[in-house]
Automatic annotation (TrEMBL):
The chain crosses the membrane at residues 12-30, 58-80, 87-104, 116-136. Keywords: Membrane, Transmembrane, Transmembrane helix. This is Glycopeptide antibiotics resistance protein. The keyword Transmembrane helix applies. It comes from the Bacteria.
Length: 141
């Protein structure tokens, strides 16, 4: 009964949040079309500019790219009843597609560091889900 309940509300939330995030990444916050293609395919090249964090821009970039993707670490495993590896396997094609759309439409940049930070966010969200589940199971004993 519990898993059926989780599936019932997790799918609509996952779809809605995915659409909201796509909006934010392509049109939100006053995004306009860049004149040139923007990309970074060298891991940690962008992150190195922000660590250590000495400005609000750096904090927003690092924390934002992690925090905004936490819900996927909760919603994906609930929606598809997946473990850690399957959650990441479902997440990665989606974020790579979104990064490619940003590049092609020039409404942002394709940045491998964003993918790394976004995936860390999913991992943290998954860890929080597992921790909360563990606490609830312990409380039911």
């Amino acid at each position: 009964m519990k898993s059926r309940y989780r599936i019932e509300w997790s799918w609509p939330l996952l779809i809605a949040y995915s659409l909201l995030l796509a909006y934010w990444m392509l049109w939100g916050y006053g995004r306009t079309r860049l004149l040139e293609y923007s990309y970074n395919i060298i891991p940690l090249a962008t992150i190195r500019h922000y660590i250590p964090i000495h400005s609000m821009e750096a904090l927003i970039n690092i924390a934002g790219n992690i925090g905004v993707f936490l819900p996927f670490g909760v919603l994906i495993p609930l929606a598809i009843q997946a473990g850690f590896a399957k959650t990441i396997a479902y997440f990665l094609p989606g974020i790579l597609l979104l990064e490619l759309i940003q590049l092609i439409t020039r409404r942002g940049s394709l940045d491998v560091d964003d993918v790394i930070l976004n995936t860390i966010g999913v991992m943290i969200g998954y860890g929080l889900l597992r921790t909360i589940g563990y606490i609830w199971r312990r409380a039911d004993r």
